[in-house]
Amino acid sequence: MTLSMYAASVPVFLRALTQLSAILGKGAAHAAAKKFDPAVLVNARLAPDMLPLSRQIQIACDHARGAAARLAGQERPPVPDNETTLEELQARIAATLAYLRSFKPEQIDASEARDINLPLRTGEVRTKGEPYLLYFALPNFWFHVTTAYAILRHNGVDIGKTDFIGALPD
């Protein structure tokens, strides 16, 4: 069986962002139980020169939206990075999930050879759909989802591998 570009992207993003939302909810519950300001988590980072939890979530959402849009031959809709609370970050994840659900397999399948122009700080990179997804979009997405998990875990939120991965689908 061949794995389609849609199957390798949108369902993966949906699942991981759903799990990210769940662990973010556990972060909010942890802050409430320990009676500390949830903004501590929003602004938490693993090292002084790393981005905080809020940016990790924003960037993970950006990579998921960007990948789906680019693979479908569309422009990624701009979204401001202005979330300052756990609730606002949850809303960003929910909006990203809704956006991803708007894509149909036929929009993304057969995008392996689609030209992708990727604007980066260092200049525009041109590639094709398959290497873009496999070597740029997915690794960047997973980096930021994993870092968000690590920030929450580092701050005492009772989460583990199962919270990150979720139940195995049928």
Order of helices and strands: HHHHHEEHH
Number of domains: 1
Strand order of the largest sheet: 1-2
What's the name of the CATH homologous superfamily?
A: dinb family like domain
Describe the structure.
- The protein has helices at 10-34, 39-42, 53-71, 86-101, 105-108, 129-154, 161-165, and strands spanning 115-120, 123-128.
- With 170 residues, the chain is mostly helical.
- A hairpin with a 2-residue loop joins strand 1 and strand 2 (123-128).
- The longest helix is centred in the last third of the chain and has 26 residues, at 129-154.
- The mean pLDDT is 96.
A few lines on this structure:
By secondary structure, the protein is mainly α.
Secondary structure: elements and pairs:
Blueprint: H1 10-34, H2 39-42, H3 53-71, H4 86-101, H5 105-108, E1 115-120, E2 123-128, H6 129-154, H7 161-165
Antiparallel strand pairs: 1-2
